[in-house]
Amino acid sequence: MPAKQTRVIVALGSAQTLAWGSTYYLPAILAVPMAHDLDVPTGMVFAAFSAGLMVSACLGPLVGRRIDRFGGRGVLAISNLVFATGLAVLGAAGGAGMLFTGWLLIGAGMAMGLYEAAFSTLAGIYGRNARGAITGITLIAGLASTICWPITAYLEAEVGWRMACFIWAMAHLVIGLPLNRLVVPSGSQSVARESQDMSHTPPGRGAERPSLTMALLAFVFAVTWFTSTAMATHLPLLLQEAGASPAVAIGAAALVGPAQVAGRLLEFGILQRFHPLLSARLAIVAHPLGALMVIAFGAPAVIIFALLHGAGNGILTIAKGTLPLAIFGPSGYGFRQGLLMAPARFCQAGAPFLFALLIERYGAAALLLSIILGLTGLAALLSLTSTSKVEHA
């Protein structure tokens, strides 16, 4: 891998670690102290978080189209400014109004600064050869929860949740903004060049029924992001409901991050030799398998479940970037990613609230829903070959 590409991967991966850790993973640690200090129900904090995810879903296609036309460097840099503003508003919140305003701003930043924008940026720079770079940044950012959850918890304990938000906001200005603005190349010349080349050649074995293929992929991404968000929000509690002690539950949940990295190393090494459709099929069965073990055996299976869920989720994160690239190519990739991920963002928005209700009523048996979703997602991936002939990456 060229040194310049390695620098881009490290910079984007580090910026993505900051972006995920200071936004998406924030409620798991700060929701309770936020709610207590603002004198609102904890559910209202998650409702504000969900509203931010809805904003992200709505803005995703527009952001993707912008990246297709002009490249992603500017968009990623602006995301750091938006994140910083949203976190500052959150830290200064005095009631529900500013709480929702802060999360809505953060939601706009998510549309511009999380994986979809980063993947689109890499597709614009490297074209069909972006699979390795996509895997590289997810390898680094896969540790976002493992790194940032303890930092957030420490900051909340030492200086309070408000100052924690302010410190994360400053990190976006001091760390994230320079990484995205100064290291990431500008423009999207490779996509434009490849699109021009493809216009002079007959279509390859791409998606023969693109609308159906898009619908299947959107469904797969929606169910997997629903489960991923539900686990990110409730995993420690869910493992306690399965019979694990609080210490064991937290320790097992902390293994998700390393397991994600392990899964991505497997993708980077062995699975990269195969079409990403195979990786996605293998990965999507990991969560249902682990969840069935927890339901059947309880506490003794929680570590295995966390490892399987993390590994599968890690590979699926890559597949969300590499599958559309392999099937449709890099032309229009950003806009297509925005469309594909919009249903996933809406599912994410409802995941914390819905799963909280299920856990409250059914305990660990709430995992039956994620098992069913995972298996239906697998069915969609298995049917993909009969509806869309994809070419080997």
CATH topology of the largest domain: Growth Hormone, Chain: A
Share of residues in strands? under 5%
Shape, per Cα inertia axes:
globular
Uncertain parts: 189-207, 386-393
Pfam families: MFS_1 (PF07690)
Main location: membrane
Domain Major facilitator superfamily (MFS) profile: 8-389
Keywords: Cell membrane, Membrane, Transmembrane, Transmembrane helix
Q: Can you walk through the features of this model?
A:
It is built from 17 helices and no strands. It has 393 residues and is mostly helical. The protein folds into two domains: 185 residues, Up-down Bundle (Growth Hormone, Chain: A), CATH 1.20.1250; 172 residues, MFS general substrate transporter like domains (Growth Hormone, Chain: A). Helix 2 crosses helix 3 and helix 2 packs across helix 8. It is globular and about 45 Å long. The two termini are 17 Å apart.
Question: TL;DR?
Answer:
This protein is mainly alpha-helical and 393 residues long.
SSE blueprint and pairings:
Blueprint: H1 3-24, H2 27-38, H3 42-70, H4 73-91, H5 96-113, H6 115-126, H7 131-141, H8 144-183, H9 189-198, H10 210-241, H11 246-253, H12 256-269, H13 276-284, H14 286-297, H15 302-328, H16 333-362, H17 367-387
Task: Summarize this structure as a short list of keywords or feature phrases.
Growth Hormone, Chain: A, mainly alpha, 2 domains, 393 residues, disordered C terminus
